Amino acid sequence: KGFRVSVSNGNQMYRFRAMVSYGSGQLDNGWSYAFSVGTRQGGNGYVDGVYYNSYSYFASAEKLFGQNHRLALTLLASPSERGAQQASTDEAYALFGNNYYNPNVGYQAGKLRNSRVRNTHEPIVMLNYTWDMSENTSERRHVAAFRQERLFGPDVERRSGPPRRLLPLYAEFG
């Protein structure tokens, strides 16, 4: 029961996290509710284009009917986006002068972009019914549904195609 806010900061891999939560506790009219929203941001200070942006949300409401029956509805999810890294070659490491070369990354319209961005969003909805028959006996029924969305490819700002860093041995034939 109560309100909570938390913020934390870290190094380059874990830049920032923030969360806001509230729980009402059991109200006199038999209702209780809770919510939480948060974000977690991170990046890799070594490899260009490797990052993640994660968000979360949760909401739940429960109604007590009499002394023995409860019905609850809950929604939760954690959508995220992250830039992927890919294996490279000794030739690329030698050309770019380090072992942190990421072939998924290049400059496009003056911006550093990653051509392999993973987006996920899988919200879950649950309906729970509880009947407390006695102190030691209860019956519970649950129904849940989820939707899965996973995208892998260039981010939404790169509709004109992925950025590329061309190596000397690369040639286009047309």
Describe the structure.
- This protein starts with a strand and ends in a 21-residue tail after the last strand.
- The protein is mainly beta and 174 residues long.
- The chain has one helix at residues 90-96, and strands at residues 2-9, 16-23, 31-43, 51-65, 69-77, 80-83, 105-108, 111-114, 117-121, 124-132, 138-146, 149-153.
- β4 and β5 form a beta hairpin.
- The strands form two sheets. Strands 1, 2, 3, 4, 5, 6, 9, 10, 11 and 12 form a ten-stranded antiparallel β-sheet that branches. It has a two-stranded antiparallel sheet with strand order 7-8.
- Residues 156-160 have low confidence and may be disordered.
What would the keywords be for this entry?
174 residues; 4% helix; two-stranded antiparallel ribbon; mainly beta; ten-stranded antiparallel β-sheet; single chain
Annotate the secondary structure layout:
Layout: E1 2-9, E2 16-23, E3 31-43, E4 51-65, E5 69-77, E6 80-83, H1 90-96, E7 105-108, E8 111-114, E9 117-121, E10 124-132, E11 138-146, E12 149-153
Antiparallel strand pairs: 1-2, 2-3, 3-4, 4-5, 4-6, 5-10, 6-9, 7-8, 9-12, 10-11
What's a quick, concise take on this entry?
With 174 residues, this protein is mostly beta strands.
Q: How would a textbook summarize the main sheet?
A: 10 strands, antiparallel
How many helices? The count is 1
| Percent of residues in beta strands | over 45%
The residue-averaged pLDDT reads 83
Gross geometry: elongated
Percent helix, as a range, is: under 10%
User: What is the first-to-last residue Cα distance?
Assistant: 67 Å
The H/E string reads: EEEEEEHEEEEEE
Which value, in Å, is the CA radius of gyration?
24 Å
Structural class, please? mainly beta
